From TrEMBL:
<feature type="signal peptide">
    <location>
        <begin position="1"/>
        <end position="22"/>
    </location>
</feature>
<protein>
    <submittedName>
        <fullName>Aminobenzoyl-glutamate utilization protein B</fullName>
    </submittedName>
</protein>
<feature type="region of interest" description="Disordered">
    <location>
        <begin position="456"/>
        <end position="481"/>
    </location>
</feature>
<dbReference type="InterPro" id="IPR017439">
    <property type="entry name" value="Amidohydrolase"/>
</dbReference>
<dbReference type="InterPro" id="IPR011650">
    <property type="entry name" value="Peptidase_M20_dimer"/>
</dbReference>
<dbReference type="InterPro" id="IPR036264">
    <property type="entry name" value="Bact_exopeptidase_dim_dom"/>
</dbReference>
<dbReference type="GO" id="GO:0071713">
    <property type="term" value="F:para-aminobenzoyl-glutamate hydrolase activity"/>
</dbReference>
<dbReference type="Pfam" id="PF07687">
    <property type="entry name" value="M20_dimer"/>
</dbReference>
<dbReference type="InterPro" id="IPR052030">
    <property type="entry name" value="Peptidase_M20/M20A_hydrolases"/>
</dbReference>
<dbReference type="GO" id="GO:0016805">
    <property type="term" value="F:dipeptidase activity"/>
</dbReference>
<dbReference type="InterPro" id="IPR017145">
    <property type="entry name" value="Aminobenzoyl-glu_utiliz_pB"/>
</dbReference>
<dbReference type="GO" id="GO:0046657">
    <property type="term" value="P:folic acid catabolic process"/>
</dbReference>
<keyword id="KW-0732">Signal</keyword>
<feature type="domain" description="Peptidase M20 dimerisation">
    <location>
        <begin position="207"/>
        <end position="300"/>
    </location>
</feature>
<dbReference type="GO" id="GO:0005737">
    <property type="term" value="C:cytoplasm"/>
</dbReference>
Length: 481
């Protein structure tokens, strides 16, 4: 065969392969689209249930049942967490992980109205869009399983049902259980008010409750016989606020008083304050945490009360991965097709009018290139990223300018923009997993970057060595002495 004819044959094979791959992409996107009606129904249901961390019984079961009915091998109650599960399809390598969350936030009960309107009888709301997060990842996983069933992809897709991201450190316990030890790459996404994919880190965080036990007495007739647990909380908070002046520049510390007494004429015998402390470095967080504990010890000493420290664990800073982030950014940029539907324009404008920093509505169709800018939030995905190459992206599902953890974010959760964003996220995830399963070089590059960033540093969680998942952290009140 002549060199010319051989070249023509090679070119033909290449073009046929590219054509087949393009057809597979079309089929994959079509599969996601076909799942969208069921996905949107499930997302709205999880939005309405609005179950807080470790109490997402119905939400977890809905997703696990959906995946199981789609042919996935499901393991429920993993890592000692009733609402955590894994769902797996396929066999062999590579093993690609898709993360899915579904917990709601307390204090954010809200209807889908463009004004503040709590839902009667409901305390929580999907203020971080996790009702979309878990569903979109499941849609991507199911669409990929169909390609695998048809023999077009080889490997294993594993969905992780991840409860209690909001303060409960759910993924930390999955990592500690070794559930990611055979994973090649882990992918995640998140709803937001912008579209982003970048090589970004986040803040490490420790959560802790300081419970004080004092002595009750009549606040007017016998105040000298009382020892106020609330006074201990106030001393702790005063000391902690003085400590702020002497913390590193990027540190963050915030608290809420969760128990403070019931009647002004009774010296409170029980009180509790709940703290988060954060910094871009987990090592700095460890140091700041010890200083914060001393503030609470000072509160107990000054008020002659007994201190109980309830460490609810912590999460590491997110370890970025440049090759994965760059690839996700290209996928998101290529597939971005979001726009606010005409029938929801008035709703969007009314919500926009309630925002302190509104952005142009047209920006839902644009990419915000954040690069390596630090994400000042925290996520338990950080712990996953220290044991396996990990990357994620954000899709605009809220009116531009909407802050997370707000009633406006909850209100946006049932809009058509949220539905569009969920579908886009599922398509980006599915196509990226296909890229990984058919491109060993991309996985190798991600692994190389992971090894470069971790160096000789071993995974060292911020939880205590024998700490168990705080399954009741959304229910806790100071206990009786």
């Amino acid at each position: 065969m002549s060199l010319l004819r051989l070249s023509a044959v090679v070119l033909l094979v290449f073009l046929l392969a590219r054509g087949a791959q393009a057809d597979d992409r079309v089929e994959l996107d079509k599969a996601v689209q076909q799942l969208s009606a069921t996905g949107w129904k499930n997302a709205q249901q999880i939005w309405e249930w609005a179950e807080p961390g470790y109490q997402e019984t119905k939400s977890s079961a809905l997703l696990a049942d959906w995946l199981e009915s789609s042919g996935f091998r499901v393991q429920r109650g993993v890592a000692g967490i009733p609402t955590a599960f894994t769902a797996e399809y396929g066999s062999g390598t590579p093993v690609i992980a898709l993360l899915g969350e579904f917990d709601a936030l307390p204090g954010l009960s809200q209807s889908s109205a463009p004004f503040r309107e709590p839902v009667e009888g409901q305390q929580c709301g999907q203020g971080c869009g996790h009702h979309l997060f878990g569903v979109a990842s499941a849609m991507a996983a199911i669409a990929l399983s169909q390609q695998m069933h048809a023999g077009k992809l080889q490997g294993t897709i594993r969905y992780y049902g991840c409860p209690a991201e909001e303060g409960g450190s759910g993924k930390v316990f999955l990592v500690r259980q070794g559930l990611f030890k055979d994973v090649a790459v882990a992918l995640h996404w998140h709803p937001g008010s912008v579209n982003t994919a970048g090589d970004r880190s986040s803040l490490a965080r420790i959560a802790v409750r300081f419970r004080f036990h004092g002595v009750s007495a009549h606040a007017s007739a016998a105040p000298e016989q009382g020892r106020s647990a609330l006074d201990a909380v106030e001393v702790t908070n005063f000391a902690a606020n003085l400590m702020r002046e002497h913390m590193p520049e990027q540190a963050r510390m915030h608290y809420v008083i969760t128990v403070g007494g019931d009647a002004p004429n009774v010296v409170p015998s029980e009180a509790e304050v709940y703290y988060y402390i954060r910094h871009p470095s987990s090592e700095v967080v460890r140091q700041l945490y010890q200083r914060l504990v001393k503030c609470a010890e000072a509160g107990a000493l000054a008020t002659e009360t007994r201190l109980e420290v309830v460490n609810e664990g912590g999460i590491l800073e997110l370890l970025p991965n440049a090759p994965l982030a760059e690839h996700l950014n290209k996928r998101l940029e290529k597939m971005l097709d979001l726009k606010i539907a005409p029938q929801e324009l008035e709703l969007a404008q009314r919500l926009q009018a309630t925002l302190s920093q509104p952005q142009p509505l047209a920006s839902v169709g644009e990419i915000s290139h954040l690069g390596t800018e630090l994400n000042t939030g925290s996520t338990d995905v950080g712990d996953v990223s220290w044991v396996v190459p990990t990357a994620g992206f954000t899709v605009a599902c809220w009116v531009p300018g909407t802050p997370g953890h707000s009633w406006q974010a909850v209100a946006c959760g049932k809009t058509d923009l949220a539905r569009q964003g969920m579908i886009l996220a599922a398509k980006v995830l599915a196509n990226t997993v296909e890229d990984l399963m058919t491109s060993p070089d991309l996985i190798a590059a991600a692994r190389q970057d992971f090894q470069r960033r971790t160096g000789n540093r071993a995974y060292a969680p911020l939880t205590e060595p024998d700490q168990k998942p705080p399954l009741d952290y959304r229910k806790r009140r100071a206990s009786s002495p």
